[in-house]
Amino acid sequence: MKFKYIKKSYKYIGLLALMLIGQSCSDLLEEEVISSIGNDYINTPKGFEDAAKSAYSSLRNYYGTQQGITLTEFGTDLYATGADGGYKGFHFYDAQLQPTVDYLATIWDETYRGINVCNAVIERAPAATVTDAIKKARVAEMKFLRAHYYFLLMQQYGGVDLRLTETILPTKKTSRAPESEIYKQIISDLESALPDLEAKSKATDYGRATKPAAEHLLAMVFLAKGNSSSKAADDYSKAATYASNVINNYTFKLLPDFASVFDQGNQNHDEVVFAVQYTMDPLTNGTGNSLHLYFGMQYDVQAGMVRDILNGRPFKRMRPTKYCLETVFADRVNDSRYKKTFKDTWICNNPGTFTNVFDNSKSTVTFKAGDTTIFIPGYEMPLAERAKKPYQVLVPSRYDEALFPTNKKFLDPLRPDRTYEPGSRDYMCFRLADTYLLLAEAQLLTGKVKEATDAINMVRRRAAFPGKTAAMEIKQANMNMEMLMEERGRELLGEQIRWMDLKRWGNLVERVQKYNPQAAPNVKPIHLLRPIPQTQIDRTEGGAASFPQNPGY
């Protein structure tokens, strides 16, 4: 049973400053009582619980959203643009990527709202009329969330305003803390939270932060820190220790079948370390997990097809690069992940005879309900062979911005109708396969190549087709960073992580130039950071002198 978040409209006056008011309100702020709930409500058992739950809701602004995926998968080596949609400056790294882009401010403002709720709960816990055990547990959760929020902000924007107390009154005094100080605070929050978080694979109240979730995040943080200007000699070894703790000290298990990790009816499974909760209840789901919209190709205007709930509403945003399809997913004999990541078959839901089909091996096709209408073989099937097929065959030479292999991890057939946008899938922020790959990376960077090979082979064996397990195992001589980077691409494609992986590895520019022709002409080192939202600078006393823009914007 998952717990329900209290949405971001949590309305008592002391927490009305869920936002950093100097950063996300207009210059002229008029306070107005919008609820009869008093400022001391947080001290009551119900109010304290409501406040703690509301701190989680800002995660829904980032995970499972268009703005979140724009900042994490656009403009990488694995994804290029589809035919539709805006915000393509994040793909192209061109003049569209400006401090005035609303997604930058949306992520910024909502993340700071979450931080401010965390600060309020931590500060007000001593006065709350709940047991000491509950106080400790909720404060630990808030420290996990605050660290999580600051890590996301710093990875995207660099040094940001480090606020550790509740912002109640309007303020325009803000400044940028150095990354070293923010890393120190993130690590302090997470490590001090560990003793009071539930030391279980699944929280009693499913969806809350746990000790293994904090340890997984610490592994991520130490890997990022080890590749930053704040690095210390023991960062990688600490990352390995925390990742090993998650793997060895709890009951997490890799599911036997890669495809089952993404089964919508099986979301609270043994591989989930931490997930953002969504629901089918429209009153509490907000905008929902909308990732089902962005990876689909334009199947719905093709012969024999109309849009339906099962195949989704294709917004055509995310198109796999040639490198992604032909190099990362090159092995389709031993490795099941191409077959289980990409949808390759469409079944007729619009019977009839059709002309002007995209498959140039035939001039007309006729389908009855239940027939295959489109098949994507994943290789350049010869024209003569395609002509024998009673369906359309989409081969790589015919891929374009509207027709391409569709990542099916996020499809949501439980939506009530074919136009409905708010999906109900939980979003897996951390899962055990990622933990193994973080461990492999940390071990490789500390020279423990055998151990790194063992860790990566855990993930690769699970991905094998039946009877192909031995063929999937790599040898120690083949364990290197290129293998690790490709393996993370195969396992985690589309899971809101690639841009930050490339940033951590320090090769964003190199790999985008090499593998993403759309972005290659424009990407440069300044793009390792996003622009600071112009609203933040404008609302800071002293403007850019007090809160400087990132270089190059």
TrEMBL record:
InterPro entries referenced in this protein's UniProt entry, alphabetically: SusD-like_N (IPR033985), SusD_RagB_dom (IPR012944), TPR-like_helical_dom_sf (IPR011990)
Domain RagB/SusD: 300-553
KW Protein transport (keyword) present: no
Subcellular location per the Swiss-Prot or TrEMBL entry: Cell outer membrane
GO CC annotation, single: cell outer membrane
Pfam family, one: SusD_RagB
Key words of the record: Cell outer membrane, Membrane, Signal
Signal peptide feature range: 1-26
Annotated SusD-like N-terminal domain residues: 90-223
Record-stated family: Belongs to the SusD family.
The name this protein goes by in its record: RagB/SusD family nutrient uptake outer membrane protein
